[in-house]
Amino acid sequence: MKKTNLTNISFEFFPPKTPEGVNHLLQTAKILADYNPDYFSVTFGAGGSTREGTLDTVKMLLKHTPVAATPHISCMGTSKQDILDILVKYQTLGIKHLVALRGDLPSGMGMSGDLRYANELVTFIREQTGDHFHIDVAAYPEIHPQAPSAQQDILNFKRKVEAGANGAITQYFFNVDAYFHFLDECTTHGIFIPIVPGIMPIYQFSKLARFSEVCGAEIPRWIRKRLESYGDDQESVRLFGLEVVYHMCDQLVAGGAPGLHFYTLNQADVVVMLLKHFKQDQAASKAS
Ligand code: FAD
Fold it and tell me: Taking the domains of the chain in order of start, what are their residue ranges?
């Protein structure tokens, strides 16, 4: 095991839809706050469908935890005026950091908004608010599923950087080489912003497989086969998932990743196990 030092972590949540979900998220956020994250980010529903949910969740996190809150904002299905209204609300709350995305339209939703791509959203945010916000954007080491080619995708990623993005968070992946190759490609294309890997802990195989299909994240055959073989044995899924994701995080941090962004799905337990594992390894390597 390499001697890795885990710093610059962040946790992503989605806006809960029920009072029970709100309570659960609050407990999760309080537990994860103890790990001194840089920030909690809160997703923005497809086509702006949880716009108020994002704002309410951000307010709740600010009120009940000492951690900075970072709302996601997407332009698909949202007008410029709506985006501006949201930006003003965030500025009033003292928010200084956003994750800016194109988003995806929910099925059956016809309109597409005034801005077509995330680079246009970043340009709009910069036009309206100058340097007020630190803006992160999305990056795709395994290529965005709608991109016509890998080459075109990286050029489109560069557009977001040129529009004023300060950093990026990746779509999750289970191939570490894809991340490091993407960093090399970025350097070749003159892109030098920090690109933080997005980490998806393995909670449940069937959901992970469905979601990975949609977002273009590859589950390597050996991982898929092992997970499939556990069937309903959730404990084995969790233990194997922990081993795989821990090893991946270890390689990423040892290889120089500037941080780790965890897709928590509003659950603390698996992420806590991962972080405890890191702490134990750090303590052991200090002692040796
Ligand atoms: P873009 O960067 O606009 O790219 C979308 C596609 O268009 C790509 O194929 C790209 O190659 C192409 N493209 C980009 N710019 C141009 C251009 N100028 N001309 C032609 N083609 C172009 N979704 C949500 O709805 N809410 C969230 O909160 C959310 N959070 C996310 C957080 C992270 C870290 C990540 C990685 C994804 C998140 N998503 C979220 C999903 C994201 O919205 C989808 O992946 C979406 O399909 C693309 O968003 P984008 O910002 O990467 O789009």
Answer: 9-287
